Amino acid sequence: MSDLLAGAYLAKGTIGNVGTPGAPIATFSLVVVPSQNSVSGTVVVTQAIQGPDSHIVVQVKGRIHSTGFGEFTKVVSLHGQYIHSVPPPAIGSFLADFDANLAINDSWNGTGGFSYYKHQIEKVPVAAIKNLKEELV
């Protein structure tokens, strides 16, 4: 039971065209447990254009698997739900789905996509965020 979390680590990064005006960006912070093929954490979707989808926080769970070949050594799938509020004149809120799929290398850089209420973003860069400790050295 003690090795249930063996090899667990934190992965942080972005999915999307960072620096492109108006592009939705998903920033992730995930705990990865390779021995269990599991991933869980938080994804924050932001977009410079104001609206109900301009800032979304989603708790996600998913799977990670090794590919065993090629440039991308891992594939990751994420899923979660968040409360989507309908803008006036309509009234109400509902649970909306968030999904993401990543093809990454061992450094968490690669390509991927994500979808959330009526938005589908595909074939965008996945980039690891450097640890603050590494940046200070």
Task: Please render the helix and strand layout as text.
Elements: E1 9-15, E2 25-33, E3 38-46, E4 55-66, E5 74-85, E6 93-104, E7 110-116, E8 119-128, H1 132-136
Antiparallel strand pairs: 1-2, 1-8, 2-3, 3-4, 4-5, 5-6, 6-7, 7-8
Protein name: DUF1842 domain-containing protein
Domain DUF1842: 7-118
Organism: Flavobacterium azizsancarii
Count of helix runs? 1
- Which oligomeric form is depicted? single chain
Structural class: mainly beta
Output the helix-strand order: EEEEEEEEH
The number of domains is 1
Low-confidence stretches: none
Number of distinct beta strands: 8
Straight-line distance between termini = 36 Å
**What strand order characterises the main sheet?**
1-2-3-4-5-6-7-8
Mean pLDDT: 90
Largest sheet: 8 strands, antiparallel, barrel
Question: Main traits of this protein?
Answer:
mainly beta; 8 strands; DUF1842; DUF1842 domain-containing protein
